[in-house]
Amino acid sequence: MGGGEETKTGEEENQKSSTPFDLNDYTIIKEGEAEILMHTKNEVFYNKTQVNNRDMSVAVLRTFISKRKEEHEAQLSKRTKKAMKESEDHDSGLEAPSGTTASNGKSNGESEKMPHGEEPEAKFRGELKPPRVLEALSATGLRALRYAREVEGIGQVVALDNDKASVEACRRNIKFNGSVASAKVESNLADARVYMLTHPKEFDMVDLDPYGSPSVFLDSAVQSIADGGMLMCTATDMAVLCGGNGEVCYSKYGSYPLRGKYCHEMALRILLACIESHANRYKRYIVPVLSVQMDFYVRVFVRIYTSAGAMKNTPLKLSYVYQCIGCDSFHLQPVGRTVSKNASVRYLPGFGPVVSQECSDCGKKYNMGGPIWSAPIHDQDWVGSILADVKSMKDRYPAFDRISAVLTTVSEELPDVPLFLSLHNLGGTLKCTSPSAMVFRSAVINAGYRISGTHVNPLGLKTDAPMDVIWDIMRCWVKNHPVKAQPPEHSGSVILAREPVLQANFARAVASLSKAQAKKVARFLPNPERHWGPKLRAGRTITSKHASLLGPEIVDGILNNNNNNQEQQDEPEPKQIE
């Protein structure tokens, strides 16, 4: 196997060195500390918008390397203490009687063989190898190059693609970025699924950023990650994940989406549930550290561990969602539950149903979606570390403003509250003017519940208050701000026909503004330029119909350039006069 790899590497080097290219045919694009050569034709996929995605990934990778080192040192310290305790017991004559050494395992035998004066920690002093990173769908290789050049302590970065033009472009860009990139980054022409399956538990971090759905890569990805490693995964098929094609979402991800205001957060939770499902097949499970919805995609960062015992907790982390078709109230139904008796724990199906056939608030029917991941989608300790790192290296992140705004909002979310309410939806159901976010938050806090914003939607509010409390608050609001009468069968009329059980207190609460809001920190930023969104798949011919994606000026420039090139090719060559 080793000889084959050496031969392959040699062939790659020959290919790289023997392939000439004219710099005049390329545009140099700089992002962070990496530079790539982009051909004037749309041969290899590159999207400027994904700078937010790449910046966030660099920040998470830096924190991952730092946390991984801390965990390794803590493990070494724990082993050292254990070894020293065993050594002290041995020295004080507490070792097992002769004849029982073999049955007690190796520890006593190793203690006896330890040379005099040697520190017990010497046995456990293992060096932590630099993390190996796999970028499964590399295209231009920009992401892999940024990892290699910007992240300290990183090991080898393997960039894969099954498109020859992309691999050639990646190798060209590796060479263009100098010796550091050439030493750390290697580009291979391979099917990512096959490559990951044939390299089980070899990578500490795997990055999946496909054009569309990542579902076909997940099974092999969860197998290629080492214990405690990280999977970074993007999904851009938001129309599918947000309920536009529910049956397609079910076929790809195994969950049925609902079209509520919280659909983008539900998309995140569907993706997490899908990754967990694939991991469970190999006695593995996930621990999310950060999950974000930005621009036109969702991006999750999860750590993967192996444990048949811990895997049994998966049904406790999944829930079905019941959403009323009339008033958009929603309720969660856990898939599983546990019963503890003495020291034993039994895993049982969840109790249900949590709702009746008709909505208790407005009398309409429910739609049922899921299952979704209902456990926390962020680790607030990680989020704090990532945000602190980003702020300390402000100049090294091209999209600093955007990712720091997202991370700030994520850091203030309630971690244990799935999905969220929309003030506009509540007001729309009752046909009333919505209260301001500060007024509504104050009423919830004064009622004894918690409430926070969400990074997904500026008008979204996460709260642990049940829906009957929410509607009581809105009934009290409407009493002070009357509305026109609606038909009696209307959902809003049914809700307002009841008297509130809770008398809401709208006096301003101290915690009605988050720390970021109080300091007037920007949390939701506009797009930096027009047509900021998804781009064409590589290889597609750019025509006038793509103006909405790229902008009319860019499309006109490309079309004019193509026409000029065609005219030059059509011109007959002048005859040579001897």
Tag the structure with descriptive keywords.
tRNA (guanine(26)-N2)-dimethyltransferase activity, 40% helix, 7-stranded mixed beta sheet, alpha/beta, RNA-binding, 18% strand, methyltransferase, 578 residues, 3-stranded antiparallel beta sheet, 20 helices, tRNA processing, 17 strands, disordered N terminus
Task: Write a brief structural summary.
The chain is of the alpha/beta class. Helices cover 40% and strands 18% of the residues.
Q: What features would you describe in this structure?
A:
There is one protein chain. Helices cover 40% and strands 18% of the residues. With 578 residues, it is of the alpha/beta class. It has a seven-stranded mixed sheet, sandwiched between helices. Strands 11-10-14 form a three-stranded antiparallel sheet. α8 (215-224) packs across α11 (263-280). The chain is globular. It catalyses: guanosine(26) in tRNA + 2 S-adenosyl-L-methionine = N(2)-dimethylguanosine(26) in tRNA + 2 S-adenosyl-L-homocysteine + 2 H(+). Dimethylates a single guanine residue at position 26 of most tRNAs using S-adenosyl-L-methionine as donor of the methyl groups.
